[in-house]
From TrEMBL:
<feature type="region of interest" description="Disordered">
    <location>
        <begin position="46"/>
        <end position="71"/>
    </location>
</feature>
<feature type="binding site">
    <location>
        <position position="124"/>
    </location>
    <ligand>
        <name>ATP</name>
    </ligand>
</feature>
<keyword id="KW-0677">Repeat</keyword>
<dbReference type="Pfam" id="PF00069">
    <property type="entry name" value="Pkinase"/>
</dbReference>
<dbReference type="InterPro" id="IPR036322">
    <property type="entry name" value="WD40_repeat_dom_sf"/>
</dbReference>
<feature type="repeat" description="WD">
    <location>
        <begin position="650"/>
        <end position="691"/>
    </location>
</feature>
<dbReference type="Pfam" id="PF13240">
    <property type="entry name" value="Zn_Ribbon_1"/>
</dbReference>
<feature type="repeat" description="WD">
    <location>
        <begin position="502"/>
        <end position="543"/>
    </location>
</feature>
<dbReference type="InterPro" id="IPR017441">
    <property type="entry name" value="Protein_kinase_ATP_BS"/>
</dbReference>
<feature type="repeat" description="WD">
    <location>
        <begin position="418"/>
        <end position="459"/>
    </location>
</feature>
<dbReference type="InterPro" id="IPR019775">
    <property type="entry name" value="WD40_repeat_CS"/>
</dbReference>
<feature type="repeat" description="WD">
    <location>
        <begin position="692"/>
        <end position="726"/>
    </location>
</feature>
<keyword id="KW-0853">WD repeat</keyword>
<dbReference type="InterPro" id="IPR026870">
    <property type="entry name" value="Zinc_ribbon_dom"/>
</dbReference>
<feature type="repeat" description="WD">
    <location>
        <begin position="544"/>
        <end position="576"/>
    </location>
</feature>
<dbReference type="InterPro" id="IPR000719">
    <property type="entry name" value="Prot_kinase_dom"/>
</dbReference>
<dbReference type="InterPro" id="IPR015943">
    <property type="entry name" value="WD40/YVTN_repeat-like_dom_sf"/>
</dbReference>
Amino acid sequence: MSSAATFFCDRCGAANRPEARFCRACGQALGGVDTTTNTIVGLGARSSTVSSSTQAPTPSTSSASSANSTFQLPTSSTTITGLLQPQHMLKQRYIILANVGKGGFGAVYKALDSQFGNRLVAVKEMSQNSLDENDRQSAADAFQHEAVLLAGLMHPNLPRIYEQFTDQGRSYLVMDFIEGEPLESRLSRLKGSTLPIDQSLDIAIQLCDVLEYLHSRNPPIIFRDLKPANVMLTPNGNAFLIDFGIARHFKPGKARDTTALGSSGYAAPEQYGRSQTTERADIYSLGATLHQLLTGYDPSETPFHFSSIHLPEHPALEGLADLTMQMVSVPVNERPESVAKVRAELQRIATLYTTGAALTSPPTISTRIPLMYRAPETLPPLPPKTPAMASSANTTGKAAKRTTQYQIVKQPNTVYICSGHSGRVTAVAWSPDGRWLASASYDKTVIIWDAASGDRVWTYKGHSARVNTLCWSPDSKYIASAGDDTTVQIWESANGHLTYTYTEHSAPVNAVAWSPDGDYIASGGNDKLALVWQAQDHEELYRYTEHKDHVYALAWSPDGKYLASAGRDKQVRFWNPFAELKKPHSFWQRLTSIFSTELEPSVLKVHNERVNALAWHPKEYLLASASSDSYACVWDVGISYTQHTKLLRTSGGNSAKNSVVWSPDGKHVAIASNDKTVQVWNVGKERCTFTYQGHQGYVSSVAWSPDGARLASAGVDRSVQVWQIV
């Protein structure tokens, strides 16, 4: 970045060299330019940030009379940042691994936190030694501002801050190390070409999520510097928003911002000092970034002027160009009123585009979300392909998905419908504290929803294949998710931070269950194994190998002593994973064990097809099971787990039963079925008391809220529906 001033055309806003007499874009004379320079102190090593205490670059629709700004980063040769060498120990804690970025008076290091399991962190360094007194104070204030602002935020698309300190004239900020590359670098490699549209939409939706979170703070936080250089992309597709040096809180009643800051081409006109920036300034920057993603044109070359967008002919993309241009409108009131509405529209477009569904009369951004939405249908589960079948499928070239659409209509007792997955939803679960819902999907993601409103909070994208199951830790702090990538991933529910990946399975994982005391996790899969391992140190406790086929269901007994497991071998097995630890070794122990009352594993043979789900009564020794034989059963297995008394066998019909759950009071069970319904049965009276019919495809999962007031169900139609019994 050159340190020379850059001048802007009064007519069109284009950036011009300081010696230019006429605008390179429109030919307007550039006379009467004030050559006073303004030096900006910034934190980002790659930032090109604009500051102006006078007039801004002027859009053609504005009546401002002058236009000049300076783009300048400190270039002092005396800066002493970036000198820490690999293996240097900082603050007797952080082991420097490499210098990963340096610019102006700042540097960023990759380091290990030796006091926290050698986790990777980023150490941001700022030196004040090369600055004069005024700039030193400005830099210190900006550095402190970023630290304080980030410390109060928690979102999966934001880096977490761990510590701030000063050492030998340098200030340091320790935060998450984000493995990846700036979006700016990704676009630079394309040399004017564009990313695939689905990737561009995904990035934009993730940025909407984090902006919506910032804007929902009290008071709202306006980022003010959204641009590709401040977006980090990880290898698994997550987008992180970085560099909060100029973010600010919105102050109601204030006429204008104290300081005009932003990046040329991405900053909204109001950021140049005319008025106080609002959430719509971030919408403008997001629109500028989205425009660049879709067209390949760098908006910094012609600020406030955006070329028309030409997209491939696809019904789902109708309205995307108009939405983008609306986001970069110069008049503030012509932009969408909230990021939430932008996200909803982008999500609708992305879902339809990635699934190949046709769209008629797409709603505009100002349209309220209707009670009816559409999601493309997918085929029911298929048996594993043989090599011959796979070869045949490759030569026929037939699509695996149908293009017919579901029309999901909100029922009178439906509280809300969550749409956001692009594949069938395989599992849904309430957090034990009742605040959140989590849903897993064939689209390789887990989405966290606000249980009160149904709004999407954020999306976990750590899996490389479809996610089959998930469960919450008893304290609601963690989620364990598992799927076809053969892993069980443990991550923080508040921010998606991955804490551990369990890799002991050799085939897709179908079931995962957290013990009631939170100490153990059980997982089962297509490798015919049910494994029990410690939740904290991940050490394997027990390996159960009695199943003859795939394991689809696992459930802990209410006392946490036994596990029930079931699957394709049609049998429900009860076993004690802790008994292995007590196995006798000496002759005397083996002799006395003959007279021991320790229970041997028990087998319950009640179904004629695979068992898809198991659920224990919240307090008693009652077990519910759901099977592809079209029946759901409830059994009193007794405290010894050897007495099997049938209490309920639902009427079969012809549809497989996929999921079963107890009500918190233990009086009812809810059963999800392939007949597109969820039935609620009174166990004591042995009759169905309610049937929910809001789904338009197989219902794969059902969950009861901890307070018993609502149920959540999900399935092939890609929706999560929350409803009440009436």
